[in-house]
Specification:
- By secondary structure, the chain is α+β, with helices and mostly antiparallel strands.
- The chain folds into 4 domains: 147 residues, Potassium Channel Kv1.1, Chain A, CATH 3.30.710.10; 138 residues, Potassium Channel Kv1.1, Chain A (2-Layer Sandwich); 85 residues, Alpha Horseshoe (Serine Threonine Protein Phosphatase 5, Tetratricopeptide repeat); 316 residues, Kelch-type beta propeller (Neuraminidase), CATH 2.120.10.
- The chain contains 22 helices and 41 strands.
- The strands form 12 sheets. Strands 9, 10, 13, 14, 40 and 41 form a 6-stranded antiparallel sheet that branches. Strands 15-16-17-18 form a 4-stranded antiparallel sheet, with no helix packed on it.
- α2 crosses α9, α5 crosses α8 and α17 packs parallel to α19.
- It is flat and about 90 Å long.
Length: 732
């Protein structure tokens, strides 16, 4: 396979280590899909290999499915695969059918507890017995959630039991062979766990009838992986192998495995992986991961150009990247250097082809300083200096802007700002969203902002904002003026289906200086300050009921702290204590636990009024204020090792700034400097793959102590409000 050939070359560049423990990726959907297919086969009387007579009625079942819960059927599996004489069970039909439903669906069917317990005893099914004893009598929403969770767990356990039978070779009734490699499997399990094998075994062709199948179009490596995934829903690979698995899943129609691989690949993008994906750009089924990989290439060109496999990139593909309006570089000189490195590694390139490639570099966007650097670098031999001079002279001046239009809408809500005449501060009502990011000549950057409906007057700052679905905004708490008595409890909601903001149920307690996050489908408001007093209280909002309820409190009162959700877990960091001390703590908060807080390794620097965001499986903490005043320090937390690492510092102060993750970058917007009390209008973006900050432009006006959210584009595009006029300002 073309893409796989470049994988090994990129290992050194990206730190891959064959001796490292492979990552274990588990498909959440696979067990339910496996047993849903088993149920379909049973209903259509396909691949049945056991007949059980209960109460005068004969039931056709799959022996291996029942063996996952029953020692009786495990014993019959030990007798070998294939059809065996039927047998009778002396239990009630309702008890048997309840157990049968448990085997195929993970929940008990309708029957009395005594009937189920009798069936469990006859079958040797301890899990059925346990489920009968624990079955809830009444079902409210909480009980329904518990039952759904229990059902998923039971199906996972049943799949694990079937996998153990396969590993031990118990009851296997089919032998597969590829390239001399042989595997003994269960026909039914393979049909349930793999679309490819299911189609083969149900086709009625010769391969579906015998006990041995020779596979001439599949490699032994792919056969091993496909069978392993069918039984487990698990992939154990680091990224080079993960791409090979994705290719096999695509070729052999394993949709749940392909989805799993695409999600994992998208979270572990690196230059070598993205370059390896280029030959697969046309492959149907890989559109999701290719879209993210393509964006990575456009935003990480300097790192991509240093990758050992970069020279193997076809010239047409590099030209497409260089010519894209969405190419995101600090300065156009970086695009020239990428083209130069490629040409230096491919000296056989014809001059006409080199000229076409270099014309994709926008020399007309370069500053005088950049042009001097281009002349000093020159072109690699055998290309002539005259060719470079000709291209620079022919370049259109000013060069065409590069412009990125994100696939999501970055929204900034309210905040503390300045009056239009700049004479004094004033809370803002304005709500803006970023439609596009423009790169002009040299270092000039601008953001094209559009407006959403204003907040009700007089506006607010130090408030929380979040979106549950990506198509609506919730704003709550904060202050509408500068005294402690101006702290708010009100909650507002806006959605794409309404013109203005509607008032919802208020917070139980007014609060400002607090984070608002979405966790388990609800809003959580954590801590904060009211009337000058730090709070430890936490509230949770149910959108279905439109009500705020108390949740377990934080261990200590705090305000001006930050919170973020990473892989389904809620983290809280820093802030001021009740006595005004800066905190360096990082805490895992789980409201379901009796003791909801778990203290983790503290930050390297105690801070408040900072930004924290989850990106790429890590937590990033930036800016804020500490014991020394304005903080430029920037650090990242790795959950796997419970450790912090310092990264490239912020270019300027951002105390009380807004933060958001947009297209794989961390954006810090506005804020102020505690040293000068000047409010900032700058928008800085951090790119993890390059470990550097870029200024993307400015806010419409200087603003601080406001939140930012990310919405879906359709939710804001229809709002017919005029965008701001472009005001090109140099990057800061």
């Amino acid at each position: 396979m073309a893409a796989a050939s470049s994988l090994e070359t990129g290992k050194e560049q990206d730190g891959s280590d064959d001796s490292a423990e492979p990552e274990m990726l588990c498909s959440v959907e696979h067990p339910s899909q496996f047993f849903a297919e088993a149920q379909r086969l049973r209903e259509q009387k396909l691949l049945l290999d056991e007949e059980v007579s209960v109460g005068g009625q004969v039931y056709g079942v799959h022996r291996v499915i029942l063996a996952a819960i029953s020692s009786l059927f495990q014993g019959r599996l030990l007798g070998g695969g294939g059809q065996q004489p039927g047998f009778s069970l002396d239990v009630t039909r309702r008890g048997w059918e309840a157990a049968l439903t448990f085997a195929y669906e993970g929940v008990l069917g309708p029957a009395t507890q005594d009937e189920v317990l009798a069936a469990a005893e006859a079958l040797g099914a301890p899990r059925v017995k346990n489920a009968a004893q624990l079955r809830p009598e009444g079902l409210g929403k909480a009980r329904e959630d518990e039952e759904k969770l229990s059902q998923a767990e039971e199906l996972r356990e049943s799949l694990h039991s079937i996998e153990r039978l396969y590993r031990e070779g118990i009851g296997c009734d089919l032998e597969l062979e590829a390239e001399g490699y042989r595997l003994r499997v269960h026909r039914v399990a393979l049909a349930c766990g793999s679309e490819f094998f299911g189609a083969m075994l149900l086709s009625g062709m010769r391969e579906s009838q015998g006990t041995k199948v020779s596979l001439r179009t599949i490699s032994s490596q792919d056969l091993s992986f496909l069978v392993s995934f069918a039984y487990s829903g698990v992939v154990r690979e680091r990224w080079p192998g993960l791409l090979r698995v994705a290719q096999a899943a695509l070729q052999y129609q394993s949709s749940s495995c392909l989805d799993l691989c695409q999600r994992a690949l998208a979270q572990s993008l690196c230059p070598a992986l993205c370059l390896a994906l280029f030959p697969m750009v046309e492959a149907p089924g890989l559109e999701k991961v290719w879209g993210k990989a393509h964006h990575y290439l456009l935003t990480h060109l300097p790192a991509v150009a240093l990758c050992p496999t970069f020279p193997a990139l076809p010239a047409t593909c590099l030209a497409e990247l260089l010519d894209s309006d969405e190419l995101h570089v600090q300065e156009e000189f970086e695009a020239f250097m990428a083209a130069r490195r490629w040409l230096a590694a491919n000296p056989e390139t014809q001059e006409s082809e080199a000229k076409a490639l270099l014309r994709c570099v926008r020399f007309g966007r370069m500053s005088t300083r950049e042009l001097r650097k281009v002349r000093a670098a020159g072109l690699p031999a055998p290309l002539s200096a005259e060719l470079l001079h000709q291209l620079m002279v022919e370049a259109e001046i000013p060069g065409q802007e590069r412009c990125r239009e994100p696939d999501q809408a970055l929204v900034v809500i309210g905040g503390d700002g300045l009056r239009p005449n700049m004479d004094r501060r004033q809370p803002s009502c304005k709500v803006w969203w970023a439609r596009a990011f423009h790169c002009g000549m040299g270092l000039v950057r601008t953001v094209e902002w559009c407006r959403l409906p204003d907040l009700p007057a007089p506006g607010r700052f130090r408030h929380g904002a979040a979106s549950l679905t990506g198509s609506e905004l919730y704003v709550c708490g904060g202050q509408d003026y500068y005294s402690h008595s101006n702290t708010l409890a009100s909650t507002l909601r806006w959605s794409s289906s309404q013109e203005g903001w509607e008032e919802m149920a208020p917070l139980c307690q007014a609060r400002s200086f607090f984070p608002l996050v979405v966790f388990d489908g609800q809003l959580y408001a954590l801590g904060g300050r009211d009337n000058g007093v730090a709070l430890d209280s936490v509230e949770t909002y149910s959108p279905e009921l439109n009500v705020w309820r108390p949740a377990p409190a934080l261990p200590v009162p705090c305000f001006a702290h930050a919170a973020a959700i990473l892989e389904g877990r809620l983290y809280v960091s820093g802030g001021y204590s009740g006595t005004g001390q800066f905190l360096d703590s990082l805490m895992l908060y789980d409201p379901k636990l009796e003791k909801p807080e778990t203290l983790l390794s503290p930050m390297g620097v105690a801070r408040a009024s900072h930004v924290m965001a989850a990106l790429g499986g890590r937590l990033y903490v930036a800016g804020g204020i500490g014991d020394t005043g304005d903080l430029l320090s920037f650090e990242v937390y790795e959950p796997k090792t419970d450790s912090w690492t310092h990264l490239a510092p912020l270019p300027s102060s951002h105390v009380g700034a807004a933060g958001a993750v947009l297209q794989g970058e961390l954006l810090i917007l506005g804020g102020y400097s505690h040293r000068t009390y000047a409010i900032s209008h700058l928008v800085h973006a951090y790119c993890p793959g390059l470990d550097r900050w870029l200024c993307l432009g400015t806010l419409p006006r200087p603003r601080a102590e406001m939140p930012a959210c990310v919405l879906t584009l359709p939710s804001v595009r229809h709002i017919a409000l005029v965008p701001t006029q472009h005001q090109n300002k140099p990057a800061g």
